[in-house]
Amino acid sequence: MSLAKKSAAQKLANKFIVIEGLEGAGKSTAITYIANWLALQNMPAENIVYTREPGGTELAEKMRDIVKMDVQGETLQDKAELLLMYAARVQLVEHIIKPALTQGKIVIGDRHNYSSLAYQGGGRGISLPLIHNIKQLALGDFKADFTLYLDIDPAIGLSRARGRGELDRIERQALDFFDRTRNVFISLVKSDEHAVTIDAGQTPELVEQAICVQLDKWLASLA
Ligand code: Z5A
To answer: Domain for residue 2, yes or no?
Structure first.
């Protein structure tokens, strides 16, 4: 067995990092910070795969369209919304994420399973144990290796999202929907030793700094 020390890029191979948070928390922006950090670790760009949920495959993107669209005279039922999130996630995990990890790549996900527990569980009020069962059916024990949760006051996040244009079907929910969603995110992160919270209400520079500190710590913990 070789005793040679692994490089950062070798340690990061096969890892799935996820960014979670409410709309306007700065997830898309944070992904550029992670990309810069990975470049500092000499991770070749061709070994990095970026995903977003719901979406990321041809069929999963169609499910994303359904989740976001307004249909006159027909409401998307909460349970249907939940099942679409998992249907899209199965497509993405089986077609993109698992094959990339098997090839030794690193995957950076814009949202994953915690979003379903937070939005459909916290926001919509579907039982969390029931969602856990659906997750087991859909994905088994597959999970993120490291989760960065960007915590933001929903009013601030939504005003940032509003600045970008019209709000979609989910974004138009009342503020207490997002308060419940945020509370579930916070409790999930608290009980997950592989997840950390970043204060996303800070300036972009401080958010980037906080993300890099957490990524450095995590990298140092990897064998
Ligand atoms: N959803 C669900 O219900 N269940 C699930 O299981 C999953 C998803 C997976 C996906 O929407 C929707 O699906 C989402 C949850 C639901 N719906 N809602 N509501 P999406 O992918 O279209 O949107 P999003 O994921 O919510 O992302 P976003 O709105 O694009 O936000 P973001 O990526 O977190 O933020 P951003 O684009 O990086 O930044 C937003 C703006 O703020 C932008 O102008 C930035 O320049 C600015 N910004 C960023 N950082 C800062 C700081 N630090 N200070 C000031 N301004 C900043």
So the answer is: no
Strands (E), 153-204: 195-199
CATH number assigned to the domain comprising residue 31: 3.40.50.300
Query: Could you give the number of structural domains in the chain?
Result: 1
**pLDDT tens-digit readout, 136-183:** 999 999 999 999 999 999 999 999 988 888 888 888 889 999 999 999
| Cβ neighbourhood burial of 120 (10 Å; 0-12, 13-18, 19+) | buried
| pLDDT for the residue 61 | 98
Task: Tell me, yes or no, whether 48 lies in a domain.
Answer: yes
Q: Whose CA is nearest to atom 20 of ligand 1?
A: 23
Probe target for ligand 1 pocket from 23, 69, 85, with the most ligand atoms within 8 Å of CB: 23
Q: What helix, strand, coil percent values describe the chain, rounded to 5?
A: 55, 15, 30
Q: What's the chain's average pLDDT?
A: 96
Cβ of 171 less than 6 Å from ligand 1:
yes
